TrEMBL record:
The keyword Cytoplasm applies. It comes from Suipraeoptans intestinalis. InterPro entries: RecX_HTH_3rd, Regulatory_RecX, WH-like_DNA-bd_sf. The lineage of its organism: Bacteria, Bacillati, Bacillota, Clostridia, Lachnospirales. Keywords: Cytoplasm. This is Regulatory protein RecX. One of its GO terms (cellular component) is cytoplasm. Residues 152-195 form the RecX third three-helical domain.
Length: 208
C-alpha cells in the first residue's frame, strides 16, 4: 500500500491518502513517530497497527463524546464519524462499540420521537424525519404500531386547528382552505382534516 498524498487538515492534523484503503487522519506527532512520508510503502502490519491502535480507539472515544450532546441513531452517529474523517469501517466499529453499552437503540429512539411529536405532527411527517435520521421503513412502521393510534392522529389535527386559530363560527372560506392546505402539507389526510372541522362545527353548533 502506497501513501499517495498527505494534506493538512489543521495545525495539528493531516489527512493521509493511500492507493488501496480509505484515507485517515493522524496528528503530526504520530506521523513523525511512525515515519510516514508521501510516496512510501505502508505495510499491511503497519496499517493494521494504525487502524487498531490509533483510529479505532480514537473513534470509540469520539463516538461516546458525541453522544454526550444528545441521543442519536446509529446512522447519525456513523455519518458524524465519517464526517470527522474516520474510515467507514472504523466508524461502523465505533458505532457497534457504543451500541454494546446500550447508548444506541434505534427502536427506542423511534418510539420516543413519535411519542414526543404525535400531538403536533402527522404520521407521514414523523416517518420522513425518522427516515432521514437513518431508520428503515420497517423500523419506523413497527414504532408507529407500538405508539400510535387513531385517537392520537385526531388529537394532533385538533391541536393544530386550535394553534392556527380555527374558529368554525368565522365565515372565512379563504382562511379555512389555508388551514386545510397547511395540514395537508404536513401529511394529514384532507378527508380527515375536513372531518375534524365538521365535528368541531357540530360541537360549537356552527355551520359553514
Amino acid at each position: 500500500m502506497q501513501i499517495t498524498k498527505i494534506r493538512p487538515v489543521n495545525e495539528k492534523k493531516v489527512f493521509i491518502e493511500t492507493d488501496e484503503k480509505e484515507g485517515f487522519c493522524l496528528y503530526l506527532g504520530e506521523v513523525k513517530k511512525l515515519g510516514i512520508l508521501c510516496g512510501m510503502e505502508l505495510s499491511a502490519e503497519d496499517y493494521r497497527h494504525i487502524r487498531e491502535e490509533i483510529l479505532v480507539k480514537r473513534a470509540k472515544k469520539r463516538a461516546l463524546y458525541l453522544l454526550n450532546f444528545g441521543r442519536k441513531t446509529e446512522d447519525q452517529l456513523k455519518r458524524k464519524l465519517i464526517q470527522d474523517r474516520y474510515p467507514k469501517d472504523v466508524a461502523r466499529e465505533a458505532v457497534e462499540y457504543a451500541k454494546s453499552f446500550g447508548y444506541l437503540d434505534d427502536a427506542a429512539f423511534a418510539r420516543d420521537y413519535i411519542e414526543l411529536n404525535k400531538d403536533r405532527k402527522s404520521k407521514r411527517e414523523m416517518a420522513l424525519a425518522l427516515f432521514q435520521k437513518g431508520l428503515s421503513k420497517e423500523e419506523i412502521r413497527q414504532a408507529m404500531e407500538e405508539v400510535y393510534d387513531q385517537e392520537d392522529h385526531v388529537n394532533a389535527i385538533r391541536r393544530i386547528l386550535h394553534q392556527k386559530g380555527y374558529d368554525p363560527r368565522e365565515k372565512d372560506e379563504k382562511k379555512r382552505q389555508k388551514i386545510i392546505g397547511y395540514l395537508a402539507r404536513k401529511g394529514f389526510s384532507w378527508r380527515e382534516v375536513q372531518r375534524q372541522m365538521e365535528l368541531t362545527e357540530e360541537e360549537t353548533g356552527s355551520e359553514w
